[in-house]
Amino acid sequence: MFERFTKDARAVVKGAVERAEGTRARTVGAEHLLLALLDREGSRASFALAALGVGERKESVRRALEEARRRAGLSRAETDALAALGIDVREIVARVEETHGVGAMSGDRKDGQGRPGRPGFGKGAKEVLEKALRVALARRERHIGDEHILLALTVRPGVPAEVLADHGVTHASLTRVLGGTGEACA
């Protein structure tokens, strides 16, 4: 599938791997793809993000992703569902971090241990890349660009889609900015 990726899309995938390695994450997640997209300049996805006002709010997006990572990757909807059951995720995070340090629930390895080599792609990242292919096909485009990865992030439920929506980036708004059909391909 990667042979169909544009230079920009390949750079996003490479950047996601580097982001995961930098935090010693066990796997590359969908959030790493979003972080790598935020690092891009001069690409279709970066122009779309800028047009939707994220250009000057990238740090806010990064902070929101980090907060979700501290909650073990739980979305706000998942946190709210647990709260309805009487489980206070903030309290759990506070207690775990009090004992084990900030970010202890992120799943990242701070001790330098873990598998040698590059982290593999987690289920979420794989799903996003597969959806990016479907989005490109739905738009009748031959190659998968970074804009397709961004569109795919908006249709896959989870933290990246939630954070993007909180910052005004939805599938509908992206489709308007990018033009074309941009079918959701759920």
From TrEMBL:
It holds the Pfam family Clp_N. Residues 103-123 are annotated as: Disordered. This is Peptidase. Residues 2-186 form the Clp R domain. Coiled coil: none annotated. Keywords: Repeat. The keyword Repeat applies.
